[in-house]
Structure formats: C-alpha cells, structure tokens
Amino acid sequence: MKVVIIGGVAGGATAAARLRRLDESAEIVVLERGGYVSYANCGLPYYLGGVIRDRAKLLLQTPESFRRRFNVDVRVHNEAVAILREQKQVRVRRAEDGGEYLESYDKLIYAPGAKAVRPPFVGQSARVFTLRTVEDTFAVDDFLRERRPRRALVVGGGFIGLETAENLAERGISVTLVQLEDQVMPPFDYDMACILHAKLREKGIDLRLRSRVTSLRDEGEGVCADIEGGAAVSADFALVAVGVAPETELAAAAGLELGLRGAVVVDEHMRTSDPDIYAVGDAVQVKNAVTGQQALVPLAGPANRQGRVAADNVAGIASVYRGAQGSSVMKLFELTAASTGLSVRAARAAGFAADSVLLFSPDHATYYPGAKNMTLKVVYDRTDGRILGAQAVGFGGTEKRMDVLATAVRAGLTADDLAALDLCYAPPYSSAKDPVNMAGYVIGNVLRGLVRQHGWEDVPAISQREDAVLLDVQTPGEFAQAHLRGAVNIPVDELRARLGELDRGKTVYVNCYSGLRSYIACRILAANGFSCSNLAGGIRFYKVVAEGGGYDEAPRHLCGLACE
Amino acid sequence: MKVVIIGGVAGGATAAARLRRLDESAEIVVLERGGYVSYANCGLPYYLGGVIRDRAKLLLQTPESFRRRFNVDVRVHNEAVAILREQKQVRVRRAEDGGEYLESYDKLIYAPGAKAVRPPFVGQSARVFTLRTVEDTFAVDDFLRERRPRRALVVGGGFIGLETAENLAERGISVTLVQLEDQVMPPFDYDMACILHAKLREKGIDLRLRSRVTSLRDEGEGVCADIEGGAAVSADFALVAVGVAPETELAAAAGLELGLRGAVVVDEHMRTSDPDIYAVGDAVQVKNAVTGQQALVPLAGPANRQGRVAADNVAGIASVYRGAQGSSVMKLFELTAASTGLSVRAARAAGFAADSVLLFSPDHATYYPGAKNMTLKVVYDRTDGRILGAQAVGFGGTEKRMDVLATAVRAGLTADDLAALDLCYAPPYSSAKDPVNMAGYVIGNVLRGLVRQHGWEDVPAISQREDAVLLDVQTPGEFAQAHLRGAVNIPVDELRARLGELDRGKTVYVNCYSGLRSYIACRILAANGFSCSNLAGGIRFYKVVAEGGGYDEAPRHLCGLACE
C-alpha cells in the first residue's frame, strides 16, 4: 500500500507516525510545502517573546529524524499542487527548481491546514506580518532584531493575537490591539472576556474594541491603520491575526465535497467524499461534540486525534473521531484563561435552554500560602442540568478545573454529577469542596428553586424599578469600598435581626462581594417570606464587567469549608 | 424541628451550615468535644512545618462566627456521652465543670470522626504524640518550641506520617520513618510508592520499611522504639500515625448497626439503622464507587459531601451519597503524589481483571520552559477497557491529570474515551496529546493486541530464560549509562536495518528509557514476524523500583508531537 500525506505538521505528521506503527510495509510519502515538519505551531508566539530562545526547540522533528524513526519519505519544499482523483495521483512542485512530478497513491491523507486570513484592507507591505508557520515567525523575529521597532499594531484578539500581543509587550514593545468585536477571545462570553480586557489594559496594551480597520498600509517608516469612526493607529509594524481559513483549494479543484467556509466534509472516520481520500486538521469540518452540529475547530489537539483516526482507518482499524468541543487554554501575562464546550451565547444560539453560574473560588485552601481566586463560569441546560460548557480566568489550577469540566461535558454529566465528583484534595492543591463541586452545588440550588439569580446586565433596569430594593450584605467596610448605587447595607450576619428594615412589598435584589454570602442572605430572606434574587458573581464581577474594574486575586471574604 | 449534631468539624459543620440554609427555623445544636469547630484538619502538618504560621488561620470558623452567620447553637467543650434513642435525647458533658445535661432531638446527625489509632506497643509517654486535632498539633508545636528536639521518630507512612515527616524535616529535624509494610502510601501500588521512597531517602529521611515496632517507650531524655528483627530507633520524640479508626463508642452503646472496624452503617441517604439518626464522615462506612463494596474512606472531601447529603435529607430533599473513590493528593517535598480509584492490587483483590499501563510524560510541551516529567500509572479492566483507577507522581500538573482521571472513573469511561477527551492545550500547560489521552492510546494498543507488555517484576525471570533475548533500543550513550544485564543494544532508528542480528527463534523483550521508543521497536519487530514484548515504564522505572533509583525529572528522549 502506498499512502501520500499532504501536509507534515500536526495532523499529517501524527497520521504518518501512527500509520507506520500500524503498517511497517506501507510506502508513506509526506509532502510538505514548507521547510519544516511536525513543528511546534503553538509555540511560535513564545519564540517571539524570547520565552523559547532556541530555534531548534520549535522543531519537534527534522525531516531526517522523522525519516529515520518512521521510515517515512518526508519531502519538505515539495508542494502538492493538484489532486488527480481519477488517476489517484498528486501533482507535486519542487520549490528547489520549480519542476513538477506526479506521485501516485492508494490512499491519500489530506492535511493542508489553514491559512492566516489576510483581509482585503491590508495593502502590500513588508511591515505587515501574519503568524502561521515557522517561516512567518522567523520573518517577524528577524524584523524585530534588525529594525528594533518600538510600536506594534496587532489586529485581532483571538489566541494568536493575544499571545503575540503579550509576547511583544514582554519584549518591551508598545502594543495597540485592535479588535472588531466588543470582546477578545470569542469562545468566551463577553463578561468573562472583560477580565482579560482589564489585564491587557493593566499591562499597558492599548486595547481598542469594536474597531473596524478599513485600511492598513505603509506610512513613512512604519504602518498606519485607519479605523472606522475612530482615530487612526500608527506603528512601526503590524501583525494581522484575524483568524484562519481552511486552505482547501486543491480539494475544491479536485471536486471533494466542501462545507463551512470551504472546509472539507468528512465522515466520522475522517474519510472525504472520495473513499480513497481522508482529510484531517484545520482544513476539515467536524462535529461539535456538544451541539452535534458541524463546526470548524482549528486546534492542535483535535488535529492530532484526527490524524490518528485517519491512519487507523487507512490501516483497517475502524476508529471514529467523536467530535471536538473546543477545549482551550491561554496564558495571558499572569492569568490563565481556559474554556470548554459552549458559552452561554453559543449554547443559546444552538437552541439550548442555557443558563450559567459564576463562582469566585480560591485554587486551594486559603489557609495554605499562595491561594488565589479564579472566576469560574459554568454553563448548563436548565431543562436537565446537563453541563454544556465552562469558562475560567485565574491563576494556578484554572486549567485543571477546565479539564475536569471538559471531561464532564464529554461524559454528559449533570450538575449533580459535578457535586458528587470525588476529586483530589490536599491544602496545597484544592479545597475539600473543589470549585467544580461548588459549581455543581450552585447549579443544583438554582435548579431546585432554592435561590433565584440575576446578572450584572440586569442591574441597570432593576435600579430603576420602584418595586425593587438593592440589598448589599457586605460588611460596612466593604460597602464603603464598593456598592451598587442606591443599595442599602445590612451585613449578612445582622440580617436576621434587621429584617424589619426591608419592605416586604418589594423584591430584594441581594449582592455581596462574590455571591456566596448573598446566597445565604437569600435563604434567610426567602424563609421569611421575601421575594429575592442573588446577584451572580457579586459586586466584584459587576465592577469588572460594567466598570472595567481590575482583577482582585487574593482570596477574601471566604468563610471556609463549612459555608458553602 | 430540632436537630442535634454531634461533632463540629468537616461533616458536622457542613451539615449544620447546609441545614440552616435549607431550614431557617430549625433549632440546630452542634456539640463539639474539642475547643474548635470547622477547623483545617488537613492543614495541621503544615502548621508544624511553619508553612502555615498563624494559628488563627487553621480555624476556618470560630464558634462565634459560625453562630452569627448560621444561627447555630455551637457548644464547644461539650461532649456527647450517650445517645438515648428511646427518649430521642443526647446526654452531654460540659468540660468546664463536668456537669451533664440532656439535649433532646427530632433528628440527630452523628459526625464524631475517627480517632488516631494508638497501638498497644505505645507506652505512657509525654514524648509520643498523635496528630488528629488542633489540640494535638499545638501540643507537638509547643514541644518543638520548648524542647528543640533534633531527632524525630515517625511511625506510619500514610498521609499524616509522610506529611509530618516532610514538615519536621523542613524544620531541620532529623527524621526516622518506620513503616510496617514494604511501602508507604497504601493507596499506591508498590512500584509507584518506590518513587516516594527514593525522594524520602534523598531528603535524608531514614526510611525503614517492613519494620514492626514492638515497643515505643521513654528512654533517658527521649524515646526508644524496638523493631522486630532490626536495630532499635532512638529519638527525642515520636509521632505515631498508624491510621485512624471510627470513634463510634456512642453509636455502639446506642445499638446502631455497625460495620467495618466498628464504623456506622448508613444507607445512601446517610441514614443509620435508626431512621432519626444520620451519620457522616470518618465514622461511617460508605460504598466504594468503583467496586460497589463497603469501605472506610476517612477523607475530608467525602465527609463534606456526606454532611451535605445528610442535611438535605433531614430537610426533606432526598439527596443520595454516591460513594467514594478515594481520590487523594499529597505534596512530598518537590513531588506531588496523587491517586484515584483502585490500584492494581486493590482491583485484583476486588475481582477485576485489572492491568495497567505506565507513562512517563512531560507536564507540558517540552519546548516551553520548565517542563518536568510525571510518572502516570493507569489501571483498567482488560475485559472492557474501563478505567478503574490511577496513580501519578510528578511535579506541576500531576494532580490535574488525576482529577481528570477521577472524573473519568466516576463517569465509567473506557480507554478509548480517554483517548478521545478534548482537553485544554497550550504550550505552558500541556501537550497536544495530553498524558491522559496518551494513557488511553497505550491501553488501546494493548487491548487491540498491537503490543504486549511486561513489567519490572518480570525481568529477573526473563533474564534467566534461554528462549528470551533482552533488546535495548536506547542510543549507545544511554545504553552505556543504564541497561538491563545481558541486554543487546540496537537503537530504534537502526532496528530496521539490523533485524538480522536478532534470533527469530527467541522472544524479544524490548526496553528503552521510558517505554515509548521500545513500543515503536515492538511494532517493527512484530511486523517482521518476531514475538516481542515491551517493558512497561522502561529502564527508568525498572531502576526506580528494582534498584531504588532516584527520580529523573527533566524531559529527555521524548520525540515530540508526532511520535506517540
């Protein structure tokens, strides 16, 4: 059997290695347009920041090492330029001399990846970069070393844009980040993204949200971007990271069935509309494991898993790719931001009766040194309590909880299942009630009607209502520091004695700092016949979202094991 | 409704707080023999080491704060001395004056905890301590401050023994640790515990395994322990941590049904044989969530969850406790050691057809700074691939993988499910194929017959066999550093060309450093008609277990994304 693989990075390289392990006698040819195979795509921004200093470290495999270990015919600088399905051949162009040749196959694995989108507003410029390949990265790095720019413009606030902005800032470069939407990190809901906005601004990054670039061009020694309805941005160079698009021209020309944004359509075995051609990685559309709908999930983990599934099937093992749920994590300066499954926005768009809870939980026991808080948002289906997704921003242990929640989402667990999870506890690592357990408890309380909750977005309207009272149950000292306009202050520990101060004819909208004490207050109020609701996330989250407040990392106002 | 709770620490305090939130009008009385409620039990060893410096920090709640917030009548230094079921009363003794009184209840929640076992070999001594309560801890701390001891004897190698040994060593005290069994940390299999043995010895702790203490008594200014068949141990003081036992004398006297080691028998609602009495925490037996068998699981997480379930049921919510799986984690100097579910030993004892795989995986992408290896053992049922448990020892991210595996065990996931998990990946946090994914792949390979594996314990017998050849596929440089006696060296990348050097009539037992390259070698050999087997964990693990080798933390010999 002869297998040709187009593309030698994540999905293609994995497929080649797995296939060799399954079939020692197959002839395996990897065609890679670039000069590198199986490289550390996700490490590229960190190379720019100097976190990864050694160019060789980015190259997980050289063509030679790959060939030696796996007996795979790796041809870098060999670009597949056509798939000839009738003849089962690929036309290949050598970069060296431009010469072309035909390579036959019994099975073809198509793993071309995605290309960085270069939007129409970008003019010709040697100072405007994208960041997709090792070559791209070295080009930016060379520019940084040779030209020593002081000001960078980053267009786009997704993973690559943010990681690059961070790494440039860490290198001492002044960064302006322009984002079309009202938030960075599209997998996050707006409110959770606001925590990242505050961090970016704290780090001196000039963050411009809701900003549409209309032209980006050379000007003098640098570049200039015009912003629709806003001030133009000048910089010494620009990096455009507005997303990627499946690079499927060959598949289109060969008449393979295409789907979303030109992505290749595959079945659960990663087989295309041509039974002899498989496709994997950023170039394909896959099932979203939560919604069941087709989606583009251009991430390294799924690409690797798909490559393995394709190899299995080529070798006669009927493995199935079960879909992606977009689990991801990003370091943003001191913060860790992670998500899995659906945001509230995405869940509602997909037709789920989605709600969410917000927690502000220490990563480990507060009596053990170094505890810091994370903000955790868990999205669930209110019809059955099933966990649909989650987002978290915090410090240590943030991505741990996200991986647990990712596993829960995949396994179809409910809120009560989260509450019952038996997770590892010792003071340096967690609390006896892990934040994931706590999320299950809070959702369970809401679903059982033990508490009603409202969100930061509801506060303005509530403040206007004659039949509503805002009750703040923080301590007087905390209340003096921050409270909602018009709120009355009765500390939770005094509430039982001071119920007479509240008007029973009005609905009481309660808040504390984080939402925990106000929940206790709500239970007291409800037991005494009041109609009441708890502000999810407390005044802390309200201030972050509505007022652009900073992130308060040190645990406080947490009342220990027994309170939750 | 009047509810009396006996015991005010983890389970009892949680029950009180939850019950108040569910029932504002109930009369709730907490009887606590000691002087503290809801304290940080798991933090006590760290107080001794000076990691936690402030006594107040150990006290999550004072009786007063608890009373204020939850309107609970907390009575410290009030000991329940009898449960009078007929009258539905508890007889209580005040420590203050020794006076007794009767307290009636509608529902009783019994959360007395467990007591530190004081074995018969321990004589009367003011220099022999146990560590269970805040009072115990302050007594040891006072001794350390006043007497400035230089040598400590710790009897027992479970959580408390190890954490205390570490903390005393960190305080500059020379520690001898005596353990009856051949390993510390009973939830671990012997081989994984060997990594901890090496660390303890590296840190200067005099570890004596398979050592039975026959007497522990005062001698001169210190203590002396006689060891059966071994040298006696002298020290300035001793800490005995040989486990805990349910402290259920009251329940026994009251005629409640008792089970394992005198633990209270409860149903899934945490109700005892008396429908008006619930019991929670270290004093009860619960279902092991993996085996379904009754077990003692004296851990903080389960106690908290049980307290909540009991409160729910008292308040009319029919919550169910679904059992414990013993997930736990411990810091041991720089190492993190975590486990969940069943060890191979425990799984086989419970009748499972259990096998395991061993991985040596970096916690995050090796090209990003700071990656360190963890040793991960995953236990599965070979009849259906279901994950039964796991153990890991490593650095950052170790307990993360254990929490994911704990969730997988709870959800009944199989090896293929692990392989398909969509976990969070970015270079600072993980690899595109997370160690948990990798474990799923390796188990899948074994179950599909793609590779056979043997363990470190099989090596001596194999070495004696005429029909076996030991093949080491490390590089010559690695081979020179460490190899099995009698092994021949053919680096994996040369194997295809040098197959003629191997005797086809013999079974080839292959090893590399960690088990990854030798798997690739096995696939090459199998495809060429050889009978072969892979040494699980490689020479590295063999040396740790069979030769007491140290722990090699820096990633090496890892071939990157595409190799797995």
Describe the protein in words.
Two copies of one chain form a homodimer. With 564 residues, chain A is an alpha/beta fold. In chain A, a hairpin with a 5-residue loop joins strand 27 (373-381) and strand 28. Chain A starts with a strand and ends in a 17-residue tail after the last helix. Residues 557-564 of chain A have low confidence and may be disordered. The interface between A and B is large, with 105 and 105 residues.
Could you give the topology of this structure?
2 copies of one chain form a homodimer.
Chain A: E1 2-6, H1 10-22, E2 27-32, E3 37-39, H2 44-48, E4 59-61, H3 63-70, E5 73-76, E6 78-84, E7 89-94, E8 100-104, E9 107-110, E10 114-116, E11 128-129, H4 134-147, E12 151-155, H5 159-170, E13 174-178, H6 190-202, E14 206-208, E15 213-219, E16 222-227, E17 233-235, E18 237-240, E19 244-246, H7 249-253, E20 264-265, E21 277-279, E22 284-287, E23 294-295, H8 300-314, E24 328-332, E25 335-341, H9 344-349, E26 354-362, E27 373-381, E28 387-394, H10 398-411, H11 415-420, H12 435-447, E29 453-454, H13 459-464, E30 468-472, H14 476-481, E31 488-489, E32 507-511, H15 517-527, E33 532-535, H16 538-547
Parallel strand pairs in A: 1-2, 1-9, 2-5, 9-21, 11-18, 12-13, 12-18, 13-14, 20-22, 29-33, 30-31, 30-32, 32-33
Antiparallel strand pairs in A: 3-4, 6-7, 7-8, 10-19, 15-16, 16-17, 22-23, 24-25, 25-28, 26-27, 27-28
Helix pairs in contact in A: 1-8
